[in-house]
Amino acid sequence: MAVSRVIKPGPEKGGLAKLAGLVSKHAPGVVEVVGEPWECNPNSLAAHLASAYFNQLCVCKAPLIAAITRKPDMCANLTVLSIQTSILQSSGSHLIPVGQLCELKLLQAEAFFSWEAFGSPGTLEFSRLVSLTIDFEKDHVANDSHRYDAQKGGKNPRVTMGVDRRRILFPRLTNLCIRKLPYTYAGAWAMFLDAPIKNLALAGKFAHIRYLDTRVLRGLDIFDMHVYLSEKSFGKFSTFVKTVLAVPSTVRSAWIRHSEVFPISVPDLCAWTQLRELNVTAYIPTFTLLALVSRLPELQRLIAQRIARDDSEAMLESDA
Q: With bands split at pLDDT 50, 70 and 90, how would you rate the model's confidence at 230?
């Protein structure tokens, strides 16, 4: 009988490499190492344990302390992986098998990080991957000029979200989360257009999110958009929301979040006819809210966290 051991390390400091060595010596059967969510500190105990056990792990949710320079002996069983893209950049090609990988989280990602460490030569197919998170570096910007420079980098690689010479396929990907989205061109989404995405979560500046390829919305069940706005974006974001709501989609639950105050206008024809739950964190005028609700025939749950009122609305209400 095989017994899997799970270690959830705390914040111990000092002599971490030695401690990780002792743990691996006395607990050789560990197959999971789990650190803190979004933890990228290579000097943590989690990082040292992840590196000590990496060859045999099925679940690695902790940063690594060094590049992967040889093919892991037992890493073919890896189903869950969190890894910094800086480790990918410095690792060899085709060293991380993807045949069993179900959940992948890429941390501290640069816009044009490399996928080369994954899979084998030829098409890179994440055949079992159902959940992908890419957490980009804060405030990074990737425009058409940057993309052109990346394509010139030696062997004319494919450039979408990251860089690789191969086609990258996600035939079972249903959950996609992109944090601090850096791209200012729609072509970045090309690699996901054939994926069966059901849950999409986006976070970033409106200047980047506005380039979302709306074709990824069509088959969704859940859509969560968190936008960091500046005052200059108010009118453009309102127009963007109208455009998104006019895209035919099967989405049933939607969150539209932002960090500033602005009203949201709605399209004359809202194509999200199957929407059952809507959470809006805008200061949305009451008349706009009523117009939106009237266009959502299946809506069952509405959370409007902030209601905006102005003098003209107050007058209209007093005359009603």
A: low
